[in-house]
Amino acid sequence: MTEGKPAEANLDARGLKFAVVCSRFNSVITDRLLAGALDALKRSGAEDSDVEVLNVPGAWELPLAAKTIAAGRKPDAIIALGAVIRGDTPHFDFVAGQAASGLMAVQLETGIPVAFGVLTTNTVEQATDRAGGKDGNKGDDAAISAIEMAATLRRLRE
User: Fold this and answer.
1) What residue spans define the domains of the chain?
2) How far is the C-alpha of 68 from the C-alpha of 74, rounded, in Å?
3) How many Å from the N-terminal Cα to the C-terminal Cα in the chain?
4) CATH for the 18-157 domain, from 3.40.190.10, 3.40.50.960, 3.50.30.50, 3.30.565.10
5) How far apart are CA 19 and CA 53, in angstroms?
6) Distance (Å, rounded) from C-alpha 150 to C-alpha 101?
7) Considering only CA atoms, which of 52, 48, 40 is closest in space to residue 141?
8) Which residues pair with 25 in a beta bridge?
9) What are the per-10-residue average pLDDT scores of the chain (158 residues)?
10) Which residues are catalytic?
């Protein structure tokens, strides 16, 4: 590797297994994140049979679902998708923070990468912009991260 130049990412999803855990809360946003993630997996060579999608009520439930999938099915990577939009109460801070902490704990405890595709925005407009709008699709970004981490860990473990 040349100093100052980033290494090329391995974005070949062929032969890798993925689980996508998607929150139903704010589904107008999360449905778009899911579409972006599935599109990225398909573009990278993942077969439909290698991708499992599980819906959960909200972002709060993402860590438990991810941990259960990691323990039982042992995919190469998990993609967690959700949208937590700030309201008038501190509820946002608890849900967003604990979802992030919980998902980090899952990957550290299980050794299975968990891509964080949970939007934490101040407004619905910001969330829409990040779910296929002017700021791209963070579901797509999370899937790309999952592919790269799964491929990297597979290489490191060989």
Assistant:
1) 18-157
2) 9
3) 21
4) 3.40.50.960
5) 6
6) 20
7) 40
8) none
9) 62 94 97 98 96 97 98 96 88 90 97 97 95 95 97 89
10) 91
